[in-house]
Specification:
binds zinc ion; binds nicotinamide-adenine-dinucleotide; Rossmann fold; 2 domains; alpha/beta; Dehydroquinate synthase-like, alpha domain; three-stranded antiparallel sheet; six-stranded parallel sheet
Length: 353
C-alpha cells in the first residue's frame, strides 16, 4: 500500500478542508498553480479553506514545461520563504503534471521538506503524475534531471475539474490510460475502445471509471517499488523509450507527452510483433485505438538518427545493452533485453514520415 490516500470523486473540491483535517498539517496553505487555474479552481478551493480556518497564499508560474526549471523553483521558494514567517505552511499543487512535479520538488527541498498535497487538474496528472512521489525540474541537458522522491500527504482528485480541458489534453491523458490497459488491464483497454468519445464529452461515469482504474494500477505498481530500485516500475515505461526521444526531438513543443507516448506505443507494439511476441491482429487493435482517440499516426519532421541518438540517453540503454518494455498480448507486459538494433530501427522507420 502507498503511505497516503488517493481521494477520487466528482465535484468534491468543497470537501477538501474536511479531507485534510486529520493529516496533521499546519494552518497555512500555499497554493501553487497557473493564473487561470487559480481563477477557475484556486478561488473556490481558497474560499473553502478560509471558511475552515486556514490562511491561503496563492503563487503562480506560467503555463508550460518551461516553468519546471531551477529559476522558477527558486523564485517560488523565495516567495514562500518571505511569506513563511511565524507560520506552519503546507503546499497544494493545483494543476497538471508541470505544477505537480515543480510544486512537489519545491515542497521536497524547501526547509528540507514541507508537507504537500497533489490536487491534479489534467487527466494525465489524475491518472499518472500525481501518484508515486516523483518530483522534478528540467535542465538544459534534459527533462527531470534534478528531482527527488517525495511523497505527498494526500492526492485529492476531483474529476469535475477535467470539464474545462481542451481535447488535446484529454488525448494526452488517454494515451497513458491506453498504456495501463496494454500493460496490465485488458478490460480497461476494451472499456476505452467502447467509450472513448465519452471522455471528450466529459461524461462523469466514464471519466470516474478510468481515473479510478488507472490510479489504482499506478498506485499498485509504485507501492511495490517506491523508489524505482526494484525494476518493477519499468513496465510503466511502455511506449516511453521512443516516446521520450520523439518528445525531445520535437523540443517538447511539437508533441505533447501523451502524443509522443502514443507514437512510442505504436513502435513498441511493432517491435513486439517482430520479436514474435504479439500477433499482428492485436497490434492492429492497439493502433486502431490510438488512432480513434485522435493521437498522431506518424512521426513527422524528426530524423531517425536524432531519435536513435536521444534514445541512448534512456536509463534502459547502458553500455551497448538495451531493455525494452514489450507486450505479448493486450493486458500483459514483458521486459526484453538486447533487442537487435535492426529491429528497433525498422520499427521506428515504419512510422517516420
Ligand atoms: N511525476 C511523474 O510521475 C510524472 C509522470 C508523467 C508526467 N510527468 C510530467 O507531467 C508533465 C506533463 O503534465 P500535463 O500533461 O498535465 O501537462 P501540464 O501540466 O503542462 O498541463 C497541460 C495544460 O493544461 C492546462 N490545464 C491544466 N488543468 C486544466 C484544467 N482543469 N482545465 C483546463 N486546462 C487545464 C495547463 O494550464 C497546461 O496548459 C511533464 O512535465 C511530465 O514530465 C510526471
Ligand atoms: Zn508518461
Amino acid at each position: 500500500m502507498i503511505p497516503y490516500a488517493i481521494t477520487i470523486g466528482h465535484g468534491i473540491l468543497g470537501k477538501f478542508p474536511r479531507s485534510i483535517r486529520s493529516l496533521g498539517l499546519g494552518k497555512d496553505a500555499v497554493i501553487i498553480s497557473h493564473p487561470f487555474i487559480q481563477r477557475l479552481y484556486g478561488a473556490p478551493l481558497s474560499a473553502a479553506l478560509k471558511k475552515a480556518g486556514y490562511t491561503v497564499k496563492a503563487v503562480n508560474v506560467p503555463e508550460g514545461e518551461k516553468s519546471k526549471s531551477a529559476s522558477y523553483a527558486l523564485r517560488l521558494i523565495k516567495q514562500i520563504s518571505t511569506y513563511d514567517v511565524d507560520r506552519k505552511i503546507f503546499i497544494i499543487a493545483l494543476g497538471g503534471g508541470v505544477v505537480g512535479d515543480l510544486a512537489g520538488f519545491v515542497a521536497a527541498i524547501y526547509k528540507r521538506g514541507v508537507p504537500y498535497i497533489q490536487v491534479p487538474t489534467t487527466l494525465l496528472a489524475q491518472i499518472d503524475s500525481s501518484i508515486g512521489g516523483k518530483t522534478a525540474i528540467d535542465l538544459e541537458t534534459g527533462k527531470n534531471m534534478v528531482g527527488a522522491f517525495y511523497q505527498p500527504s494526500l492526492v485529492f482528485t476531483d474529476t469535475k475539474l477535467l470539464k474545462t480541458l481542451k481535447p488535446r489534453q484529454v488525448r494526452n491523458g488517454l494515451a497513458e490510460a491506453i498504456k495501463y490497459g496494454i500493460i496490465g488491464d485488458a478490460k480497461l483497454f476494451s472499456y476505452i475502445e467502447a467509450n472513448h468519445q465519452k471522455f471528450f464529452k466529459g461524461e462523469v461515469k466514464a471519466l470516474n471509471f478510468i481515473v479510478r482504474r488507472c490510479a489504482a494500477i499506478k498506485a499498485r505498481i509504485v507501492a511495490a517499488d517506491e523508489k524505482e530500485t526494484k525494476g518493477l516500475r519499468t513496465v510503466l515505461n511502455f511506449g516511453h523509450t521512443v516516446g521520450h526521444a520523439v518528445e525531445a526531438a520535437g523540443r517538447y513543443d511539437q508533441y505533447h507527452h501523451g502524443e509522443a507516448v502514443g507514437l512510442g506505443m505504436r513502435v513498441a507494439s511493432r517491435i513486439s510483433v517482430s520479436m514474435g511476441l504479439l500477433s499482428v491482429k492485436e497490434e492492429e487493435r492497439v493502433n486502431r485505438l490510438i488512432s480513434s482517440v485522435g493521437l498522431p499516426e506518424r512521426i513527422v519532421g524528426v530524423r531517425l538518427a536524432k531519435i536513435l541518438d536521444l534514445m541512448r540517453h534512456d536509463k534502459k540503454f547502458t553500455a551497448g545493452h538495451n531493455r525494452f518494455v514489450l507486450t505479448p498480448k493486450i493486458g500483459r507486459v514483458k521486459v526484453v533485453r538486447d533487442i537487435p538494433a535492426a529491429i528497433i530501427t525498422e520499427a521506428i522507420q515504419n512510422y517516420l514520415s
